[in-house]
Specification:
Serine Threonine Protein Phosphatase 5, Tetratricopeptide repeat, elongated
Length: 415
């Protein structure tokens, strides 16, 4: 058998002489020896194109293209596109013609952009994007073109998509470069900010990065942007950013992925923070595991529990489900008091209704409700609460208080 090097020398000699028919016969020998050699396929396709064997050239070029695509070699993909676009598709099958047409549209769009014909390039790039949605080179060019024409929203959209594709392909440095482009146009873009924070970590500025991630995640939680929140929180968690796991579990919980959120917190391998315990308590409650919900929240410091109406309410709700009505009422009353003192009167009324569901004769409940309704100028409700208080005071032997509230009641009725 002929040596591969000898065959290559023969091919070079034929190519220099322009004898492509003989060169191709030698290529056939090499392909038989090593059909998986992509570089060889590329050269073979070029030789076939020179001889006018465009269909065979296309078959070899597409094999090269598939290899580049599997390896995420975007720049080389564009080079192959240009070679394929130069082929004559007349003898291709229908599938081959359709692929050639799509590739030709992409090449034309890129050519227009590279030639500085921005106004023609924008619609051409948009059309090309329809055929090749995961090509960051197209998306970056589209972003640049839109930016040059002050189409800022469209530019940001194209850059964001390019950044995501680059991240998926593992091209981190390029994705960070695109993130900084986005930030120049949209300083509040959360994905770009997250990528910039990632870059800060790589540069040893983890504390600054943690601050950016925390602000981002709080903003996403406040705006109820669950999908974005999951993505950014997962990125933060993978980078060992403080609060990353907590927020990731939170956004999973908000997305009703209860079991996944629970496992994340239970399998953390470290002591849970106060915020994580609160979240885990809510997760257990939503999963109808009321005993665990109550238990995990009661491991918190008493001072933390007694100052947080949300925690008090979940504990109360858990006790209610466990049919410990008296204890549930105790926690609801605490939550009512915190809300009233903080001036959250509407929320306080909702909490009061929960107390009423378990105990209608708590003096403290009606005293606070009388104060709340007074502050809200709800005269009829104040009269109703004073009437109930007079009866309760009498029942509890508090005659002076009963007399005082009746006096106030009479004055109210005269107004």
């Amino acid at each position: 058998m002929e040596d591969k090097k000898d065959i290559l020398k023969t091919i070079t000699r034929y190519a220099q002489a322009g004898d492509w028919a003989r060169a191709i016969k030698e290529y056939d020998k090499l392909i038989a020896l090593d059909p998986s050699d992509i570089g060889l396929r590329n050269s073979y396709g070029e030789a076939l194109a020179k001889l006018g064997e465009h269909r065979k050239a296309f078959e070899n070029f597409t094999k090269v293209l598939e290899d580049y695509a599997s390896k995420g070699m975007t720049q080389k993909i564009m080079m192959m596109y240009k070679k394929i676009a130069r082929l004559d598709p007349k003898k291709f099958d229908l599938e081959g013609k359709a692929l050639h047409d799509r590739i030709t549209k992409v090449v034309n769009a890129v050519t227009l952009f590279d030639a500085g014909e921005i106004d023609r390039a924008i619609p051409a790039l948009k059309e090309a994007d329809k055929y090749d949605k995961y090509n960051p080179e197209i998306l970056i060019r589209l972003g640049e073109a839109c930016e040059k024409r002050d189409l800022i929203g469209e530019a940001v959209e194209a850059y964001v998509r390019a950044m995501r594709v680059l991240v998926d392909k593992g091209r981190k440095d390029e994705s960070i470069a695109v993130a900084y482009r986005i930030q120049k146009l949209d300083r509040e873009n959360v994905e770009a900010m997250a990528m910039a924070a990632d870059d800060l970590i790589a540069k040893g500025q983890k504390e600054k990065a943690q601050g950016i991630f925390k602000d981002l995640l709080i903003t996403l939680a406040e705006k109820d942007r669950i999908a974005d929140g999951q993505r950014i929180a997962k990125q933060a968690m993978d980078l060992n950013i403080e609060y990353g796991k907590q927020f990731y579990a939170f956004f999973l919980f908000k997305d009703n992925k209860i079991d996944e959120a629970r496992r994340l917190l239970e399998d953390g391998g470290s002591e849970l923070s106060t915020e994580e315990k609160v979240l885990l308590g809510k997760i257990y409650f939503k999963a109808c595991d009321y005993e665990k919900a109550k238990s995990v929240l009661l491991t918190l410091d008493t001072e933390v529990v007694d100052q947080n109406p949300e925690i008090l309410e979940v504990i109360g709700d858990s006790l209610l489900k466990l049919r410990d009505y008296r204890s549930a009422g105790d926690y609801y009353i605490k939550g009512l008091k915190v809300l009233k003192e903080a001036g959250h009167l509407d929320e306080a009324i909702i909490m009061a209704n929960k107390v009423m569901n378990v105990d209608t004769e708590r003096v403290e409940l009606h005293e606070m409700m009388a104060q709340i309704y007074t502050r809200k100028n709800m005269k009829a409700r104040v009269i109703d609460e004073y009437t109930k208080l007079a009866v309760l005071y009498d029942r509890n032997g508090r005659r002076d208080d009963a007399a005082q509230v009746r006096s106030a009641l009479n004055k109210l009725k005269m107004i």
